[in-house]
Amino acid sequence: MTWLVWRQHRNQAYVAAAALAAFAVLMLITGRLMATQYQSARAACSASHSCGNLANTLVLAGPWASLLVTLTVVVPCLLGVFWGGPLVARELETGTSQFAWMQSVTRGRWLTVKVGWALLAAAAWAGAVAAIVTWWSSPANTLEQQNFQPSQFDIQGIVPIGYAVFAVALGIAAGTVIRRTLPAMAVTLVVFTFLRLFIGQNFRAHYLTAVTRTFSFLQHPVVPKGSYWLVSSGVIGPAGQVTGSPVHGGPTINFGGVQMPIGNLPQACQTLVFHDPTSFRSCLAAHGYHAFITYQPADRYWAFQGIEAGIFVLLAAALIAVTAIVVRRRDA
Amino acid sequence: MMASSNPAAIETRGLSKHYRKVTALTEATITVPEGRISALIGPNGAGKTTLLRLLAGLARPTSGEVAVLGGWPRQDPAFLADVGFLAQEIPLYRRLNAEDHIGIGAHLNSRWDGASVRERLQNLRIPLDQTVGTLSGGQRAQLALALTLGKRPRLLLLDEPVAALDPLARRQFLAHLAEAVADGGLTVVLSSHLVADLERTCDHLILLAASHLQLCGDIDTLLTEHRVLVGPAKDTTAIERDHTIVQAVRTARQATLLVRGKAPVIDPAYEAADVGLEELVLGYMGQYAAPAPAHLTMIGEDQ
Predict the structure, then answer these.
(1) CB 3.0–4.6 Å: which of A141, A200, A228, B181 could bond A224 by disulfide?
(2) Do A271 and A178 sit in the same domain of this protein?
(3) Residues of B in contact with A99 (CB under 8 A)
(4) Is the interface score ipTM higher than 0.90?
(5) Residue A2: closest C-alpha in chain B
(6) What residue numbers bound the domain in which A43 lies?
(7) Does some domain include residue B2?
(8) Residue B161 and residue B112 in one domain
(9) pLDDT tens, B38-94?
């Protein structure tokens, strides 16, 4: 069976390998350039004790390399649409499944080998791209401390592997159920994009219970170490009311990155906001107000990567199970 | 089960297949002994393809029993190795060439005769290195047939195998098939809607019309059981006592009756004649055609 899979898809494999090689060379060149640039900037700033501002002054990557890296976010979706979608659908559509299924190989084995290689290839390809992107981004990660940003999180580490495995499994399942290549590809594109964004936006922040820390306005604000993920921040009143919720209209004040309506704060303090920031803080403290910050610590990065990749791998497994049942039970 | 000395390659009982809105096969009870070449004949939409797909295990019956080579058609390497099926659409990988397909056969079958496939294709002057997409329809059909034979199956199920072949190629192919069966160990069922194609080669008949089985049995036996009676257009009750009237064509003065039954016809008013296969088949198919010809093309129409 492996022989058949290779014979059927070797051209695709060559194209994919060539594309990966080209991408790797490009990233290697720009990545090394960036790393030396970062190191020399670092050396220069530590000589003049001005490294605190480095993130704002240093622009590391050129626009084209950055754009290319950003675009790798679509890699899993492309694999799902162009590898997964046609894999079974094209055979059902052209009838070649009837040829394959009447050789002395069971449909179960046919599917296992085909799907196994497809998922393995997708994982390897997406994993290689993600590894290159992760390496390429390491100076920027150190500099910007934005690892939890979706623009970084989604294309680095191991989540791209989970996405790719899921996307290809989705393509295969859609193709098996729909039995037509183009509709299967379209369904894969839409469902994958929706589910991926939906899970990222609605579930990711809650994989682990966020850490909340409160502190007095008389202290220095708490700033977690490393590239933490800021979930929310604001002010807690004496009755426990959170006044950090964004409200449309009315004057607001930026506190810890959150726009707060001034109207939510005690009357006595409101007038001090623009004239005397220090007194304003003392005033809030005196009225029993505290600042708080809710965040996911930086050291949870790999846990989050693992959880999200795991979710997508499990979804992929469920889709493959459905595919296997349909292939074995339904009329050819 | 039949006696073990002459086991049946195919046995079905009450085999039915319904799709959502249509009935493709109704209560078919069929026996094909081993070593036969059976002609599966019926008009388009009679259920021939459905029957072959049920026998190959590509489709599951809605109800009824089916035994192929002594077992249920199942997804199991041993069963699949024993059954060769060629679909009407001749599904092959368009972007691969004949040599690739021979390679697939070698990798996916425990017993595989690649040499005979190559030899056959070379005799037919079919290029081995040209992608299937660029071959002619006839060449594709020949390639698919050669590949199906290359599996060395014990049962060959061929859906309209000669439809894409020119008359000479048809004759050659059928002769080749007869040879393979004569060598022993092979049973063949091949479908067609043309009787002339199969008359020379086949010794067994399965006749389907509008999803119903009409006839199933040894062709010679079936021919001796049927007669054409030509006589006056009068009441046929006397004849129906010993014979079944399959088809009656009546004009004002004369009736032509296709009857089934071994008893002699005593009434001197009738002249009896033997029937040929084509006559027989058309007689049974005519039953369905008579009231409204459209019925022939509709699957699942109950008579």
Answers:
(1) A228
(2) no
(3) 87, 91-93, 144
(4) no
(5) B107
(6) 2-49+61-207+303-329
(7) no
(8) yes
(9) 999 988 888 999 999 999 999 999 999 999 998 999 999 999 999 999 998 899 999
